[in-house]
Amino acid sequence: MSDTITSLKDAVASGTAPGPALRLALSRIDDPAALRRAGRALAGLADPAGELRPVRVAVVADCTVGAFEPMLRAGLVGAGALPEIVTAPYGAFDLTLATGGFDPDCDVLSCLLDESYFLPGDLDHAEPGTAAGHLTERLEHLRGLVTAALATTHATLVLHTVPLPGNVRDSVLSRRARGELTRLWYRLNLGLLELAEASPQIEVVDLAGLLGDVAAPARDDRLHSYADLPYTDAALLVLAREVRRIAQARLGLSKKVLALDLDNTLWGGVLGEVGAEGVALGGLYPGKAYKELQRAAHRLREQGVVLVLASKNDEEPVRRALLEHPEAVLRPDDFSVLVVNWESKAANLTQATRALGLGLSSVVFMDDSPFERGAVEAQLPEVTVVDAGGDPAGLVTSLVRHGWFDVPELTGTDRKRPELYRARSLRSDFSGGFSSAEDYLKALDLKVTVEPVTRFTAPRAAQLAARTNQFNLTGVRFDEAATVAMLTDPACLVASVSVRDRFGDEGMVGAAWVARDADAWHVRNLVLSCRVLGRGVEFAVAGWLARQAREAAVPRLTGAFVPSAKNAVAAAFWEKAGFVPAGEGRFEFAPADMPDPTPSWVDVTSGSSPEEDA
Q1: Per-residue CA distances from 70 to 77, 207, 360 (Å)
Q2: pLDDT, tens digit (0-9, with 9 covering 90-100), for 195-236
Q3: Which of 55, 185, 478, 498 pairs as cysteine with 449 (C-beta 3.0–4.6 A)?
Q4: From residue 465, how far is each of 35, 200, 282, 477, 572 by CA, in Å?
Q5: Three-state SS across 78-128?
Q6: pLDDT at 434
Q7: Do residues 113 and 159 make contact, with C-beta atoms less than 8 angstroms apart?
C-alpha cells in the first residue's frame, strides 16, 4: 500500500500521470485511510501527455464532506480520469443549487445530504408520525432545488438515500412508533430514488442500502458532534465509489470485454487432468460457486459485455465440455472469440482484441493463476486484471464490485454487441477469399443509413461520444442532455450512422454533431465505432453531410481534427475525404464544387428528419 502511495507522489512530482499498472493498483485500495492519503497525494496531478480523461466535479453538501473529496479523486484517477474537484462553501447547499452557484460546465454535480436536512428539529419522539408532512415538504423543496440546478447545467447530478441514525431511531421508545418512523424514512428514501425518474441527468445512489454491505459504522458520534461530519470514512468511501462509477460510465471509461480463464475459474479443477465429468461445476460448494460465476458472466453478456475465452488447453476437449456438460451455463457460441491453445495469455489477449478491433484498455481479464495474472499485468498493463484465486465463493463479487462495465443507460445496440463482434470475426474469415480489398468490400453489400438523431436514439449517440476514442475527430463529448437540447435547435444538426452488411445489422455505430450557420456548416465532432473502420463508412458520412449542405445552399462545410493519445487513425480523414486544410487543424469543403467522397461500394440511405416524421 505504501509503495503505491509513494509511486503516486513520484508521478505527481515528475509532472506525469500514473501509468495503467499504478492506476489499477490504486483502484484496488479498499482501506479508507490509505485511499484518503492517495487522494491527497494526487491533488497536484498533471497529465501533459493526455493519458487521462478530464472530468470536472462539483461537490455541494449540507454537512461537512470530510475525506470525500480526496477519496473521490483517488477513485477517479484509478478509473483513468483526471479530476478537477471543487467543493461549495459549507452551509450554502440550498443557495448554491438554487442560484447555480457551482461550476456550470462541470460533468458531475455530487450532492451530500444527512438526516438533519429532512428531520424536523422538534421531532415528537412519542408520535413521530406527525413528521410525515414535514418530510414530504423537505423532499419537495429538494426537488425544486434540483430542478433549478439542472436548468443551468448539463452535468449529471448525483443524490443519495440517507440512513436514519441509530440514536434517532432508538430514542423512540414505543416499538410501534419506532416502526412508524422507520416506514416514514423508507418512504423518504423511496422519494429520493424516484427523483431519478424525472430526468436522465439525475442519478440517485442507494447509500442507505449499500451501507448494509460495509463492516463499519455509518457514523462516528464524536466526529459528528465535533465537526458536523455525519459519515465515517468507510461510509464516504462507499459513496465516493458510486460517484466514481457514475463518472466512469459518463466518461466512456467502462470496459467492453471480459476475458475469462477456464480451469479453476469457470469451473473447478483442470480439464486435462480430470476430464469434463470430473470438473467441479454446479451442485454443492465449490461447484455451485463456479456455476454462479458462469451465470454472472452470462448476465453481463446479455447486457452487452463481449466474452472471450482465454484458456491454456486443447481446443476440442474444451468445446466438447462446454457443449456437453449439463451444468455449463456458458456455451461456445456465448464467446465472441475463443483463444484456446498453449500460447501465453498475453499473446492470446492481444490476438483476441485484434480480432474484435478493440483496444487492450477495454479488457477485463479474470484468472486464478498468480503467474498468468502477473504476466499479463507486466506485458499488457492496459488490461484490468481480476483475481479469481482464493475462495470461489467470492468470484462473482470480485468480478462485479468495481463496476468496470457500467453504462449510463443500456441501449439496444449494447445488448446486440456480443453478436456484432462475433460477426466481425466472420467478416475477417470471409475477407481471406478475395484478391483485393475493394472486391471484398463490394461483396460485403454494405448499406449505411444516416439520419437525424431522435430522443430515442440520443442516449446511444451520447454513449458513442463518451466511449469512442480512435475515430473521434475533436474529442468533444456531447452527453445526452446536450444532444437532446440540440435536436430542437434549428442551428444544429445531430445525425446518427447505422450500418448493415451481408453478415448482419451493426446498429447505430456513429454520430455527427453539426452547427449550421447561413454561410457554413461546422462539424463539431464526428465519431465512429472502431468495429466498422476500414469499410469506407466515414467517407460515406462525409458525402452525406456534403449533400445536405449542398441542398441547403450552404457554400462551405468545415471540419476539425484535434489530436489525442488515441485518435491517430483518424488524423488524415478530412483530407482523404477531399477537404482542404484551412489552418490550425481545420478543413473546408465546397459542396457545390468538390467531388462526392462516398465510396462506390457503399449504398447510402437517408432517414427522414424529425419534422418530416411529425
Answers
A1: 11, 19, 29
A2: 999 998 999 999 999 999 887 889 998 888 888 899 999 999
A3: 498
A4: 31, 16, 41, 5, 20
A5: HCCEEEEEEECCCCCHHHHHHHCCCCCCCCEEEEECCHHHCCCCCCCCCCH
A6: 59
A7: yes
Strand-strand pairing, 602-606 and 108-112: unpaired
Backbone angles phi, psi at 513, to 5 degrees: -115, 120
- Cβ atoms 119, 165 nearer than 8 A: no
Task: Identify the three-state secondary structure at position 508.
Answer: strand
Mean pLDDT score of the chain, rounded to an integer? 91
pLDDT of residue 298: 97
DSSP, res 433: G
What lies within 8 Å, CB to CB, of 359 at 6+ separation is: 353, 382, 469, 470, 530, 566
Inter-axis angle of helices 2-14 and 20-27, nearest 10: 140
Q: Which amino acid is at 124?
A: D
Instruction: Tell the residue number behind the cell numbers 512530482, with chain if given.
Output: 13
Q: Bridge-partner residues for 513, per DSSP?
A: 494, 525
Q: What pLDDT does 531 receive?
A: 78
Q: Which residue has the cell 408520535?
A: 127
Question: Given the DSSP bridges, would you call strands 521-528 and 557-560 parallel, antiparallel or unpaired?
Answer: parallel
Distance from C-alpha of 379 to C-alpha of 346, rounded to nearest angstrom: 7
Joined grid coordinates for residue 112: 451530500
Query: E strands within 382-503?
Result: 384-387, 446-452, 471-472, 492-501
| Distance, CA of 449 to CA of 603 (rounded, Å) | 8
